[in-house]
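Thread: quick sanity check before group meeting

JM: Hey all, I'm pulling together slides for Thursday and realized we never actually wrote out the predicted structure for the chain we discussed last week. Dropping the sequence here so it's in one place. If anyone has concerns about the input, flag it before I start.
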Amino acid sequence: MARGSMSQPDSPITIRHPERSSISEKRGSRSESSAATLLDMDMVDEPRKLDYVDIEKQTDDGSRPKVKLGDTRARLTLWMTLNTIATVAIVFTNKAIFDDPAFRQSQVAFATFHLLITALTLYILSRPYISLFVPKSMRYRSMLPLATAMCLNVIFQNLSLTYSSISFYQIARILFTPMVALINFLFYQKSIPRNAAYTLLPMCLGVFIISYYEPKSTAHPEAEQTSLLSVFLALTSVFIGSIYTVWIASYQRKFEMNGFQLLYNQAPIGGFMLIFLIPWTDNLSVVREVPVNKWLMILLSGGLAALINLSQFFIIAGAGAVSSTVVGHVKTCAIVALGWIISRRPVTDCSALGVILAITSIIV
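JM (edit): ok, ran it. Output follows.
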């Protein structure tokens, strides 16, 4: 998913956790999200570590033994590696899918597929024979606004990936951090420490430089170009995703649900909502012309989304904030670097300065 996923970019401050009064702790942001995975776990608030490490299962004597997830460092390293590979792979897989004109006209159907895959994954993980988290059901009416925001977030993420270079798409998602901080400040009177705010300046400057130079870059026509439409879609995606992120925190506080419980309710509602839009928004007649290898890529994309959701669960359970941040930085840097190489854009390109500023700001 989504995805993609959402499921936001990695930033030097925490801006989503409803249980912390300060948002200056370092952790991963949504730039490291699975890009177009549609609803990867990075697009929801991280639940408290206790929710995952201490899964309650009643025994005969009334005690509740702890079920440790990722009980060895080797196992945790494996999940981190799988998560990184799946996140990077799904961005390039989805980009290849959207390069087909048929799927450029089937954005809602593709989003629906990923949301339903996410819903199915969470349903399986919540079953008693697995019990990775305890599901909590909410009324449809209560979840409808958040599910609507989720659908818009997912669709605009995919549109941004469709019409942007991979590097620009991923770099633009770094703006989730300052945008969420701004929304929290304007509407919830939540501020961040001055030093943390200073780190947002080079981040915004870097994205601005890339947004300015990439559409103007014509010296290398063989390189993948970013248009003004790409910039508009990327910034719109960031804006919608930031509002969605703030709402997630609000819903978690209001209904006392962790991120997985919240997504467990959102994903099926969002998926079924989009099903009714497909006849009005997508041109499915051209799908008949899609070759078999594209259908296999779609199945691969769904499998990668499920793997991201599952691996993110174990990472949250077994790793602290520092480890999660490092994983996020690795994913962001890998996607940007590989995207730059594939686009055949020279390192001397003016937008390279923006990439350096933006990447440095999330690592420092």
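AS: nice. The CA atoms of residues 112 and 291 lie 21 Å apart. The two ends are 29 Å apart (CA to CA).
JM: adding both to the slides.
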